[in-house]
Amino acid sequence: MATADVVVIGGGLHGCSAALHLARAGASVVVLEKDHVARHASGVNAGGVRRLGRDFAEVPLSVASLELWNRIEELVDDPCGFERVGQVKVAEDEAALQSMRERSETLRRSGFTHEEVIGRDELREWLPAVAPHCVGGVVCRDDGAALPFRTTLAFRRKAESLGVRFHEGICAQAFERSGGAWRVWSPHGTFEGGALVNAAGAWAGEIARQLGEPVPMAATALMLMITAPVAPFVKPVVGVQGRPLSFKQYANGTIMIGGGQRGRADLATNRTSLDYARLAFNARTAADLFPRLRHAQIVRAWAGIEGMMPDGIPVIGPSCTQERAWHAFGFSAHGFQLGPIVGSIIADLVTRGATGLPITPFSIARFTPGAA
Amino acid sequence: MSPGLRDEYDVAVIGAGPAGLAAASLCARAKLSTVLFDEQAAPGGQIYRGITQSPLADRSILGADYWAGEKIAREFFASGVQYVPRATVWSVTAEREIGVSTGGGSRLLQAKHVIIATGALERPFPIPGWTLPGVMTAGAAQTLLKSSGIVPDGRTVLAGSGPLLWLLAWQLLNAGATLDAILDTTSRESRARARTHLPSFLISPYLLKGLKLLRSVRKRVRVVSDVTQLEAKGDARVQSVAYATAAQGAPVGMPVDNLLLHQGVVPNVNLALSIGIEHRWDEEQLCFVPVLSPSGATSVPGIYIAGDGGGIAGAQAAAWRGVMSASDIVRAVNPEAARRAAKAARTTLEHFARGRKFLDAYYRPAPQFRVPAGDTLACRCEEVTARQVIETVALGCPGPNQMKSFLRCGMGPCQGRLCGLTVTELIARERGVSPQEVGYYRLRPPVKPITVAELAELPKDDAAVKAVVRI
């Protein structure tokens, strides 16, 4: 039986980040990953490092996480491909621009100034090729994008260098707390730890259920596609108000088009299948914003399996039913940027019992009838 | 976009080579609504390319085996199949939804059964300099001959191994080309190991034809045997080929304008893998092959693979493998016709199976021509060298899918067709495990590129518009 201070379930970015921060705080950690590190959403997402447009509850965490992204090489010994190219959200009409102004003002009143509204001309400075009908937008200058697989692997390697042990191909199946310790069963052996961290992504719901606090999480396959290289024409990551889109051109000219369109996911087999009618919707949005994109060749489309919460924000914090168990899952397709900070929050909670960041809105108790 | 396409078919066949033509004919004759999509302008696939519109008036150039395709094509046209040429199938799902592009537009349609007959590809031949202009695959040269009657101009050397190498040499010579030499890379070890399979080869249909062909070529071209090293050299294009043989260790140079490379064919697995069909590593044929029932049924219900896409067995066997798959489908509507067709197919396939093991063993490509070293490119689209792959394995990258994330190998427009086996075998050798354990690229649709506009113009679906999530 392998023993450690903390057993982390899930080798995605959140599991790796929690393990890294726990190891820095002096804890011994094992990470159990049923496939391989970064196999699912953590490795194949759009790589957006974005504060722009987040749920208000997430804004303080996202802003704190960007501080960690800004010195990511110091944290994990790898630049993670992070580029502060900015994020732009386009307004296609005056009503969209107005709602951006209102949101920006609300943020400002809470002390957050990262979302700047821009008009027609400044939008064209950011996006010279944008379609004529677009009237303005909102930008976060210091946001950008990173390489998700590389990032998750960098967290893993740094954690390993601090003594964290990763077990890949190990599917944790049953959890029991007795005698002040957690015992985790897998077909390949038993693991024991003083604390348990559930960072199992789309598979985390089963763990929460076994802990006696089921959550209404849905597993879905979020689709992305990529084109053959075209001449560079856009630098920042681009979204649009009112239509789901995440759009980025890489240095080699290829363009990634995403936007949270769902394919089908099978949790038992890891299979995902694409829904072309829905991908077509994304292609239309991208071509509407950048007409020159119409002739670009799509060479690949794929989907990553992700857990979606009904209210669109994650579960972060202690278990309400069990001693010394914590959750970090259900990031609902926007967990990548939060990876560095949430690992730090989990480490603080496990080692000190508290965090300086406001995590009450993310409590798992919100899904427990009658609970606080 | 083809206006006559329906939303649903009983059977959709992909590929108009011998397997696809024969399968589609049988299904259509049994009155199943059958559509056949093919990328070319005319039927025939690679082996019978241009069979209905060959520019070559002299039939002896391509030989009688080639013209056997005429009969299959004639039966196909008489069968009532809806034939859609110049059509690119860019996706098939496990639910048998097919995405197809014709005439610049795309659409989705549904089939009760799908027969994949997408055939074979030439095995990658990653020697130093293999990406220089003037170096091409023997198959590409054959395509030019069959479709346009063109033969290479200037000093031409054929290098490699396998029955198709000799067939092409023969066809090129018949068409009036001059070949300066054939550098035969068939290894002594392979030839020795093939001996155990000799008895069945002696009674196979390949023996006589093969010997006749070899003799005819050897009479007309200088053949260098036991070639153990090959390198294409040149600045802007290939200027010479350097080779060494088992007998003499030091490399010898030979000036060339064209270097044609070939070391056998392997199943084209991209579409099948993208559907999630189970595959396994075949140690005899040194490639991944789908796991199939005798009738070509895959691990995904309703989807069949016929012909060389299911493992290399050759053109003549391919047509009968098409019949096997089709008869499995036809059984539900016409059991008697299905039984008769399957019986004939089984007998003929046994006939052709004889000798295949000998050919596989005899022409087994040598390791140094499959697994490159140093600065030789493994992935030509993304320009990834063998050394980079080896170094990345040392970093702890265990398989081709993680390799994609590190090096982008396999992520270019060829979608791994030209590097998949090379990268898998390189990783396997470095890790000291079997290619089966290393696995292959997880392949992503579209298996052939489509434009953003084409995808954007797919018929709208209201549910899709609503079913979006905030990101």
Q: What does it look like?
A:
The complex is a heterodimer of chains A (372) and B (471). Chain A has 372 residues and is of the alpha+beta class. Chain A has helices at residues 13-24, 41-44, 59-70, 72-76, 94-109, 120-126, 148-161, 204-210, 276-289, 339-352, and strands at residues 2-9, 29-33, 48-49, 87-91, 116-118, 136-140, 144-145, 165-168, 174-178, 181-186, 189-198, 218-227, 237-240, 243-249, 255-258, 262-265, 272-273, 297-308, 315-318, 325-329. In chain A, strands 4, 5, 6, 12, 13, 14, 15, 16, 17 and 18 form a ten-stranded mixed β-sheet that branches. In chain A, strands 1, 2, 8, 9, 10, 11, 19 and 20 form an eight-stranded mixed β-sheet that branches. The model of chain A has no long low-confidence stretch (mean pLDDT 94). Chain B is an alpha/beta fold and 471 residues long. Residues 462-471 of chain B have low confidence and may be disordered. At the A-B interface, strand 12, helix 9 and strand 18 of A face helix 15, strand 22, helix 18 and helix 19 of B. Strand 18 of chain A pairs antiparallel with strand 22 (450-451) of chain B.
